[in-house]
Write a structure and sequence with these properties.
Chains A, B: It comes from Flavobacterium psychrotolerans. Chains A, B: GO terms for molecular function: pyridoxal phosphate binding; transaminase activity. 2 copies of one chain form a homodimer. The first copy, chain A, has 397 residues and is of the alpha/beta class. The first copy, chain A, folds into 2 domains: 150 residues, Aspartate Aminotransferase, domain 1 (Alpha-Beta Complex); 234 residues, Aspartate Aminotransferase, domain 2 (3-Layer(aba) Sandwich), CATH 3.40.640. Chain A is built from 13 helices and 13 strands. In chain A, strand 3, helix 6 and strand 4 form a beta-alpha-beta unit. The radius of gyration of chain A is 21 Å and the shape is globular. At the A-B interface, helix 1, helix 3, helix 5, helix 6 and helix 9 of A face helix 1, helix 3, helix 5, helix 6 and helix 9 of B.
Chain lengths: 397, 397
């Protein structure tokens, strides 16, 4: 039998997907499963985007430009400018989701054996994309006690080698819900300048910020134009995860010219979905106000409920729609599987994402879970109630 | 300034894109440019697919399954079965275009320094995808005199090393229009079995076969289930290039499980376009009959006209909608650029794809061009007339 690649063997499996067969078991038993594990919002896509799809006026579904439709890029640059983020349409390549933007970014800067440093816990697919690019992730630990604030710069410096090509952050953070301050961003800026490496910021949750905080985009750091690569996506902004439209943004011309070669090789991002995304830019502010208010309410509800469980440690996230909670159980991989396979509370159970999958340091996050607050408040209250009862039962067996 | 990757530096630029700035020059001069250079058909997308988009009934544009919607995969497997190609829905992963299927296939089997052997001339992006996967393409030369038939198996064997992971063919061929016979496929089958390597077949032009020939799919080779990976796409079948929907097909469970890790990392293929593709499977046979008849007519016209030019060598292609023509000029890179930059025939000129970009052996294909017959017959006749006049002028300066 012919051999598959080492790269293929090393590609990590999604920590959430591993649980999927057990969710099937729960469903086969007729149990209702509350999904606290996923990043698929239940928020409606703006009507203006859906209508653009319904009103599509094409007789041939042609390739678009490899960098994406120019009309979309121009409108997107206006969108950023309104947010006080200085991005020209020539600074961006429209990608097939934020995922492809990450792949292009890592392909552009990483060779076999190269490294990128990422504060952990981090979005599990960063590891997959690094592996696909022949490189690896070097984690720097952030802790639940600080709410997953930026680790000390000295901790990053200990890990920098000649193979280090970039520092990658997710801001706001998935899975942490942490929002880096301007001061933290400036510390990172000084660091990447000092070592002349890239700073990649995944800003796909940039809209989801609560309590009057503001998002400080990596694109706004003065004097860092050559070092910065931003990744963005419409997936969460407009609840258009299935559109698979993202973008790669940089002022570094060499980065953009190189990423463009990757973009040309795959021809173009999807045509219909780009049209929907262009229309979505005219989504009224009231849409976001409602969405943010809804998420803020869910967050407050979730955190209040979680804090009622003895032994739970959770810090109220500032942004995005995730939190990491430490549970009074021995091992959340086992616990999450048990919840689906063996537990129900009046015919209902919950699915959570064990946090070990968001760490690359072995042994980290073993008693933590990621909870996505993408359910309505009533369901969140019910879910945490189930979780509370389940912890009692789990710890008594 | 931080450094980009060697991989990024090595990524080849598309041979056609290099000419794009010169096409702009021609257009700025007010010249009409006939595009013989591109693979974007002018054929209408089936109405049934466009209507599926217009009638979309979604309020949230959600992620689909990472392997694509199961309903689409099941229907697609029925489509293949009608074509006597035995593919189950579990043997496929829906990808973002045939491009992503190629990337998944190469990522699954290639590590840094690995090689794949491809008969040249070949679709230029195969090089790009190999580079992105850390490997490289080893070409085996096929010749215009044989119409680009399969090179002797002994020529392949000379190139096989422990680093050889696969043989990749495009069948029917872009840019050659060649259709491999069952006998040629059997020769390849014996070869990959002997050396226990993969056989990857890009079959995206499988529908475009003229003169009563039949396509012998790589999936139908008996006993080769573990060695075969097929790449397909809706781009040409339904003139839906912009949908970016393709698929990766294999009966090898390890290949599929590994490719699935790449698929999960990028989450899912586009949702709306998958719905359109599922609907497209019900496209009536009459659509294909018309399209094939149209292309056959175009091919016959093109070849007849090209043969009227003294010094042109071209063999009538059996399939797809391309041919490679040898022109009586010194260098088609220079000639193609000159056509756009400096030539016009009554205000009109043509854009062709210099064939050197489809070879990886330096110096090959220098007097060849790829012509795509994706224009109507009248325009094809006019284009070749311009080409004929242009060759005269070019050779007299």
């Amino acid at each position: 039998m012919p051999k598959i690649s080492n790269k293929g063997k090393q590609m990590p499996e999604s920590p959430i997907r591993k649980l999927a067969p057990f969710a099937e078991i729960a469903k086969k038993k007729g149990h209702k499963v509350y999904h606290l594990n996923i990043g698929q919002p239940d928020i409606k896509t703006p009507e203006i985007a859906i209508n653009a799809i319904k009103n599509i006026n094409l007789s041939i579904l042609e390739y678009s430009h490899s960098a994406g439709n120019e009309s979309y890029r121009r409108k997107l640059s206006e969108f950023y400018k309104k947010q006080h983020v200085a991005v020209d349409f020539e600074d961006m390549i429209i990608t097939t989701g934020g995922s492809e933007a990450l792949l292009f970014a890592l392909g552009t800067i990483m060779d076999q054996g190269d490294e990128i440093i990422i504060p952990e816990p981090f979005y599990a697919n960063y590891s997959a994309f690094s592996t696909a690019s022949g490189g690896s992730v070097i984690p720097v630990i952030s802790t639940i006690e600080t709410g997953f604030a930026l680790p000390a710069i000295s901790e990053f410096e200990k890990l920098i080698t000649p193979k280090t090509k970039a520092i990658l952050i997710c801001n706001p953070g998935n899975p942490t819900g942490y929002l880096y301050s301007k001061d933290e961003m400036m510390q990172l800026a000084a660091l990447v300048k000092k070592y002349d490496i890239f700073l990649i910021a995944d800003e796909v949750y940039r809209e989801f910020i609560y309590d009057g905080d503001t998002h400080y985009s990596v694109m706004n750091i003065p004097g860092l134009e050559e070092h910065v690569i931003m990744v963005d996506s419409v997936s969460k902004r407009y609840s258009m995860c299935g559109a698979r439209i993202g973008c790669l943004v940089s002022k570094n011309k060499e980065v953009m010219a190189t990423a463009m070669k990757f973009a040309q090789a795959r021809l173009s991002p999807p045509t219909v979905e780009q049209i929907a995304c262009e229309a979505a830019i005219d989504t009224p502010d009231s849409y976001f106000e409602e969405v943010i208010s809804e998420y803020k309410g869910r967050r407050d509800t979730l955190i209040a409920e979680l804090n009622k469980i003895e032994g739970v440690i959770v810090i109220k996230p500032k942004a995005a729609f995730y939190c990491i909670a430490q549970l009074p159980v021995d091992n959340t991989d086992k616990f999450a599987q048990w919840l689906l396979e063996s537990y129900d509370f009046n015919g209902e159970t919950v699915m959570v994402a064990p946090a070990a999958g968001f760490y690359s340091t072995p042994g980290m996050g073993l008693n933590q879970v990621r909870i996505a607050y993408v359910l309505n408040k009533e369901d969140l209250i019910r879910s945490v109630q189930i979780l509370k009862e389940a912890i009692k039962v789990y710890n008594s067996i």
